[in-house]
Amino acid sequence: MIPIDVLAGFFTVTVLLALAPGPDNIFVLTQSAVCGRIAGIAVTLGLCTGLIFHTTAVALGVSAIFQASELAFTFVKILGVGYLLYLAWGAFRAKPEPVQQNKVDHSALIPLYRRGVIMNITNPKVAIFFLSFFPQFVDPAYGPVMPQFLQLGAVFMLSAILVFGSVAFAAGAIGDRLSKSVTAQKVMNRIASVVFVGMALKLAAATR
């Protein structure tokens, strides 16, 4: 087991990383502003579920494939770029809804959750980041290596939930006010579309 002081240091670093502007928290922010805070929470949980995939991949050494193989990295990157462009098109075409219908119902939360999972898993940069970051806090002297990776993954998920959840609530509160205006809804949808395109371009330019 990893000592508490090491986990505390890891947690502090991951919170700071989550606070830094990046694709994930921007994604949560835009979805919360457009669809409401509950939608942002659903996306947050989806993104964090994706972290389980990356944590397991690192623990099993699968992420090394993305770092060593240009073909594997490019394939997953193309999937991610395509999905982001699909989201951008959907946001661009979205029409303003009446205020009372602007909130996400329970049936729409699963697609939002799934959207977060897919976006996280199809970003090979996350896998490579985990592969380079986690080993710094792993030590055979603490015991078996795999449980240590899983511990770090759980702490990383906790920090992401806390930070992204806060972003969702803050952006959702702003979105509540803006959703009362049809013009504001149109603007938010266009902004979300531009953000998705920007994220797609950034991912397309990413290298190992």
Automatic annotation (TrEMBL):
InterPro entries: LeuE-type (IPR001123). Its main location: membrane. Keywords: Cell membrane, Membrane, Transmembrane, Transmembrane helix. The chain crosses the membrane at residues 6-29, 41-66, 72-92, 112-134, 154-175, 187-205. The keyword Acetylation does not apply. The lineage of its organism: Bacteria, Pseudomonadati, Pseudomonadota, Alphaproteobacteria, Hyphomicrobiales. It comes from the Bacteria. Pfam families: LysE. It is a multi-pass membrane protein. This is Threonine/homoserine/homoserine lactone efflux protein. It is found in: Cell membrane.
